[in-house]
Amino acid sequence: MNRNNDRDARFDDPATAREWALQERAREHERAGAPMSEGDPRLAQYRLLSRALRAPPMEPIPYGFAEQVARRAAAAADAGDRVERWLQQVLLFGLIAAGAGMVLGGAASWWPQAMAQLQRLPEAGVSWGAVAVACCLASWGWSGIARALGLEPGAPSRPA
User: Fold this and answer.
1) Would you put residue 61 in left (φ > 0), alpha (ψ -120 to 50) or beta?
2) Alpha-carbon distance 9 to 21, whole Å?
3) From the DSSP assignment, how many helices (H) and strands (E) are in the chain?
4) Is residue 36 part of a domain?
5) Domain total for the chain?
6) Is residue 127 part of a domain?
7) Which region ranges are annotated with the description Disordered (predicted)?
8) Which domain holds residue 120?
9) Domain annotation covers residue 76
10) What is the pLDDT of residues 52-102, one digit of tens each?
């Protein structure tokens, strides 16, 4: 301990000094392994207290403790993931709806200009552009459907 000398403790109250000395004597007797004496019940109480403080009882970890903790953590993570996924879908839908509203709301001003630019392209460019757009939509659309149904490789299976 970081004390200079416990025996030199100074107390203003003689009763406190006696209690301190009794506690120190009980600690020394307990460390030395001296037999308990019935002559001083207060000393015996302090010895029991000293013994209890030196060796606190350790309760064993229950069987399957790590598995229980892992199960609780996974359940909490799944619940958080579900809420997060739901919020993400709501926000994505809102973003798509806002974007569609902006496109349709301003279509009167930009649609004629876009059509004029497309008419200036060669015929083959427009058809290949349409094919590329159709391929992207089919690929991303199928991927989204597979993910939603849980058919995507490596995706966790959804509970029934």
Assistant:
1) beta
2) 9
3) 5, 0
4) yes
5) 2
6) yes
7) 1-39
8) 89-148
9) no
10) 888 767 788 889 999 999 999 988 887 778 888 889 999 999 999 999 999
